[in-house]
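dumping the sequnces here before i forget
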Amino acid sequence: MNMELSRRSFLKVAGAGVAGTTLGSMGFGDAEAAVAAHVRPFKLATTTETRNTCTYCSVACGILIYSKGDVRKGETAVITHIEGDADHPTNRGTLCPKGAALKDFVHAPTRLKYPMIRKAGTDKFERASWDQALDRIARLMKDDRDANFIAKNEKGVPVNRWTTVGFLAASATSNETAYATYKVVRSAGIVAFDNQARV
Amino acid sequence: MTNAWTDIKNSDLVVVMGGNAAEAHPCGFKWVTEAKAHRGAKLIVVDPRYTRTASVADYYAPIRQGTDIAFLNGVIKYCIDNDKVQWEYTKNFTNAAYIVKDGFGYKDGLFTGYDETKRDYDRSSWDYVIGDDGFAVVDMTLQHPRCVWNLLKEHVSIYTPEMVERICGTPKDKFLKVAEMMAECSSPTKNMTSMYALGWTQHSSGSQNIRTMAMLQLILGNIGVRGGGMNALRGHSNIQGLTDIGLLSHLLPGYLNIPTEKEVDFPTYMSTRGFKPLRPGQTSYWQNYKKFFVSFQKAMWGAAATPENNFAYDYLPKLDVPAYDVLRIFEMMDEGKVNGYFCQGFNPVLAFPNRGKITRSLSKLKWLVTMDPLETETSHFWENHGDYNDVDTASIQTEVIQLPTTCFAEEEGSLTNSGRWIQWHWPAGSPPGEAQHDNWIMGQIFLRMRELYRKEGGAFPDPILNLSWDYANPQEPTAEELAKEINGRAITQLTDPTDPTKVQVEAGKLLVNFSQLRDDGSTSSGCWIYSGCWNEHGNNMARRDNHDPDDTGAYLNWTFAWPLNRRTLYNRASADMNGKPWDPARKIIEWDGSKWSGYDVPDIAPTAKPQDVGPFIMNQEGVSRLFARGLMRDGPFPAHYEPFETPIPNVLNPKIRGNPVARVFQNDVKQFGTADEFPYAATSYRLTEHFHYWTKHNPVNAALQPEFFVEISEELAKEKGIELGGWVRVWSKRGSIKAKAVVTKRIRPLMCDGKAVHVVGIPLHWGFMGAAKKGFGPNSLTPFVGDANIETPEYKAFLVNIEPTTAPVGV
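..and the predicted 3d for all of it:
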């Protein structure tokens, strides 16, 4: 966790009237603390500020997300505002028409909430539990792999190839997710493995 | 990008060709306006449409889509003819002086070794003459008739301004103006940058489009310098990262290769990866390949990867084809050879070409799993939406499992931007409903499958059973754990190879960076190029010091850039043969007589003498390649080929259709259209209010740009009786769509080889899910063929017809 102070988190600390010891550690004396303590808190001071990166294009503009509640403390957190990060060297606080509307992407009416299964030939999704969905996936994968895995080619060379199942990876997941995905997909022998960079 | 977004402010000339940064990358484009406002930089836009980038350009030239190589070869010819070459750079930092084998040649639009039945070349003659000393033979005077420079001169000689006009439709005077402005940047103190995106990649000659500009940039001495470079703007927030981590059919992480089945064992695999220098004293950094590979295998399989089993080489899948890329796997799906498919944050029903074929192929699957924060057209491909998705639901026997994932605002980890900055982010909100992190989902799939293999046994379970998965909570590995694994650590104590009494890294500690990797199994690293991202100093990707000494734009203490926190690739080339900056005002690094230092991490060994060691340290030559040897499938020099669907025949060689070595499947050839039936040249693009097929789910963006449309010129509208705002039908050999017509001055007919070519512009943001009005995308129309080297589909140049029509059904 990066503990550098940004403009907003300064306001939060000062505006919330936190004890002088905190301000002292920031280099303020008691006098400044006394003044700060009676200033009405900014609205954003009651929110949690989080640094993040815009999810759209690869300029990777810095953004600040404000939430009611702190998800890192295990609380339920509702995102109430997103703006450009003025400290970020690339975008210096600015956002484009896509980035400026990020909050409404997060809260889009078509965000998915539950695992769903559409059975063959039917015309609707039905809600499933995670256990149902994941056990089903593991079973489908295992059965197909056992049936179609090519351990060796006709020359007897180990090829460890599974061609009847493919995996398309995302373009906005983190590098860490990408790496975890890589491990799972490749260890199974899947060769039809691409991401959005292919197109 | 070779450079960073913040470096664009250092440019003298910004060339946007094959992209539209003002609309697709608005906040990055601000660095272009910065360069214009404070440096007096000029902006050139070359594009079939008069885009918003063009609207602020100093000079705009129209071009017919799919003809960029002819244009840029014409510029190279102009530079050669007019002595606009950065000679010291070209002679010393490129392979201009290298002598090419006698067998190599180019005739009738084809290079030596073409086999029409295989649609491939025997590339053995595309190489240097190797001397008795084992090194490539060079002639530094550039007099030898077989040196690369003279072969290049000959190769581009046909691309005269008149020929460029015939092929590209760019009026000769406009072409010459652009060529003149670019050529001025051959001065060591004038730097040009190239900003491109999918307007160059999505062609059957996409790789060569980019290569041609790279060659021009080398001749002008603009690679490795501030305000220069080849800058791929890239499309998605972590498309660079997913490529770096190797999530492509033919790759291992860090641009290592998945073995082919011809590489029957590890020694065979390594036998072609020695990367011996081709000139004396050169770095040829890929000589360390084995260290990277073995360390990756150790990250994957830990103790199960041993010297005795060749570090579990046999656990890796081995390819029998160049790649199971997306076009190939959908072709196989259509043939009924694929049973299951996963789409993680990916929407192929709108993203892959020839949508009819995509939907038909998905309908042949037994099962489809989608992982996404949003409802997608792919997870609903079986649902009938009238004209917008006209399928017979009951006949589709595919089981679809739709898994809800978190989005960026709810998860932790790093993303790599186009400038290779790896930036950490933190979660801010709780996921909706039961949505879960991708790490958890992948962990669950893995653990459940491993359990089945433990209980039941099955087909070669070893790589699954032995996969290293020792996370504190195996149910969901954390971003921190994975980042450290990517960075790499010492498995056993590492001592200095020259002095075993000196301990370099204690067992279990994180490595400083990839320079500490070993090939004996004593180190692990999930992706070598990222090593250094999270070491014993902490999470370097989370660094937030935005100071920039002397305002160079480097921001060295802001996050971490791969490799080794280097911000400008090839930055050794910013200095001359004595190590002095070409332009002292734009110094990056400098040689002080004993070492390199400056504003960036040197892209060369710190003590490598400037006269001895070339700046392109990844190449066996130590220099860059104007002549690509056999490394490109479609030629060591770029040649103009028309798109597979073209409004005019190939002017140079009318018999050649498309790129002669691009892979085509027989069923798709039947679906290529010709100009007599489909006379108009269509292209696809983004709008600034939307991002792909995501923002149509956002009511704000849906309100800003609610409805699908196509753009045509006033001339074509008049010819076809189409009115502004009226409904039109646009169709290709593969599909038909309906749209509102935007009749605009932004698109004008181009005169190509005496024929007026009308352009039809088709934006790509609509489908049948989300908050925007239902609509179509260009992929309903585009051909199922990809780039000859990397199989990126040809979205930017195809043929359609158009007519007025009535509104679609099913709104």
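The domain at 666-804 of chain B is CATH 2.40.40.20 (Barwin-like endoglucanases).
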